[in-house]
Amino acid sequence: MPRSVSYKNIILMAVLVAVTLLVMRFTQVGRAHLTPLEAAIKDSLSPLQGGLTRAGETVNKGLGFFSSLGRLADENKALKQQVDQLKGQLYLQEELKQENRRLKELLQYHDQYQRNFQTKVAKVIGRDPGNWFGMITLNLGQKDGIVKNMPVVTPSGLAGRVVAVSDNTSQVMLISDPRSGVGAMVQDTRVPGVLEGTTAASGETRLIDIPKDTNLQRGQVVITSGIGGTFPKGIPLGRIVGVTNEPTGLFKTATVEPFADLNRLEEVLIITTVYNPDIVPSTEGG
């Protein structure tokens, strides 16, 4: 190795060591003033440092914003759940209110007729989808003392009769079923007839076998006649809404709109005992 190169390396190393020692001295902690070199470096780097600081603050704010969005979404979800719960409570309260009203009406009907009938309250738990206005299922059966042919009523009027019974349920054929037949009469004129259902989908009934010379008018009330023994006398059935002559020309037929809302039955009364079938209770219609 040439001596000149060796001397240069030694001199360069000495300079670097000296600069390092000088920098360490001037940058020691606790100094009150900066050196001109330090001040120049700090001044040249301050815009970059400020930009980086602002960028960091922006990033922090952005992260905070997105974090707050997540919190707001969670709070909004919780509030929606609370609103849904409150709505559910309101709906339940309204349902209980309506059920209470219906049960009060049933109780008033029971009180009005208790001298003539003994009844039991039953809930409608099923309908025949293919015969909506024909058959319903109640939550009382043989264990509750229910037997076949017991009349089923509402505060507005007759609904039907029990046609089949199991231990815990009973099936009721409504008066609107085409297979149903109820001994009936026009309340004011006492003209007798038979009330039967029309079609399974209409919910209407008709009074048949009325002599041609009988004066039938819209608005007349039809009640049970007691003939046949299944239904007590005097239970409201419905109101005449139309009159036509039968094709034979011997009889008239009256379309009767039932007082009982057969499409919305929820609770009914089953007449389990008839004390005095000859007494006709007062009828107000629906």
From TrEMBL:
One GO cellular component this record assigns the protein to is: plasma membrane
One Pfam annotation reads MreC
Q: NCBIfam families, alphabetically?
A: mreC
Establish whether keyword Coiled coil is in the entry: yes
Q: What family is this protein classified in?
A: Belongs to the MreC family.
Q: Which GO terms describe its biological process?
A: regulation of cell shape
Give the residues annotated as coiled coil. 69-116
- Record domain Rod shape-determining protein MreC beta-barrel core: where: 124-271
Q: Which organism is it from?
A: Desulfotomaculum nigrificans (strain DSM 14880 / VKM B-2319 / CO-1-SRB) (Desulfotomaculum carboxydivorans)
This protein's UniProt keywords: Cell shape, Coiled coil
Task: Tell me the InterPro entries matching this sequence.
Answer: Cell/Rod_1, Cell/Rod_MreC_2, MreC, MreC_beta-barrel_core
State the protein's purpose.
Involved in formation and maintenance of cell shape.
Q: What is this protein called?
A: Cell shape-determining protein MreC
